[in-house]
Amino acid sequence: MNILQDQVFAKSREVLIAKKRELVQQHAEGNGPQACRELTTAEEDKFFELGLLGKHDPEVLQKTVCWALSLHFGFRTRDESRKLKWGDVSISKDPKTSSELLLWKAERGSKTRHGDGQHQRAFYPTAQATHNERCRVQLYRAFSQHQPDEMKQSDSSFFLAINHRRQPGSQIWYNKAPLGKKTKLASFFRRLRKLLNCLVTTQTTR
User: Which residues belong to any copy of the ZMYM2-like/QRICH1 C-terminal domain (predicted)?
Assistant: First the structure.
């Protein structure tokens, strides 16, 4: 006998379908109240006020840059952040306004794009300068100032391990080694999600 097909189980199937609909309405993230959405300016300001985002600390700065790049470029923190190279992102200028912006020039593979040249975007993603505390260009510059010069080659890893043994007052916050696989970036986004009631997903801030 087959519970999915036999007529004798028809009533049971109806009960299961009804229960499934009830659970979807209560817990699904699709179009329900838990659906992820873009952060409001006030919510973003709150993150900076709480010190969860900013450039005052090596770990916070690293997470803030990762969050900003994920927000504008749409890559996933756990996978694509490890693939990102220093030469993939650069400061450029808008050809129309001459305003500064961050430009993502190379895509090294994602869940939907394989980085093999066959799944290219129609344009390079950018993040415009805003000239305030949340300015993506200023965050990138601050991040660059704390990177070892040797790790600013085009093929160097973008996110580096934090140098916890640096001398007091040293402006070089990161080691000459890539960030490990067991990073805190994904858990950081989960923390933001809990604090502001599912505003960002674990894998991406899109």
Answer: 40-192
- CB-CB contact of 104 with 73 (8 Å): yes
Asked whether 59 and 67 are in contact (CB, 8 A), the reply is no
What tens digit of pLDDT does each residue of 10-65 get? 777 677 777 776 766 555 554 444 445 566 778 788 888 888 899 999 999 998 99
- Whole-prediction pTM value? 0.68
Q: pLDDT for 115-161, tens place per residue?
A: 444 445 556 788 888 888 889 999 999 999 999 999 999 999 999 99
Q: Which residues pair with 90 in a beta bridge?
A: 103
- Could you give the CA distance from residue 144 to residue 146 in angstroms, rounded to a whole number? 5
For 89, phi then psi, to 5°, come to -120, 135
**Can you tell me the distance from the alpha carbon of 110 to that of 130, in angstroms, rounded to the nearest whole number?**
28
Instruction: Return the pLDDT at 121.
Output: 53
Asked if residue 163 has pLDDT above 70, the reply is yes
| 23-32: long-range pairs with CB below 8 Å, 24+ | 29/198
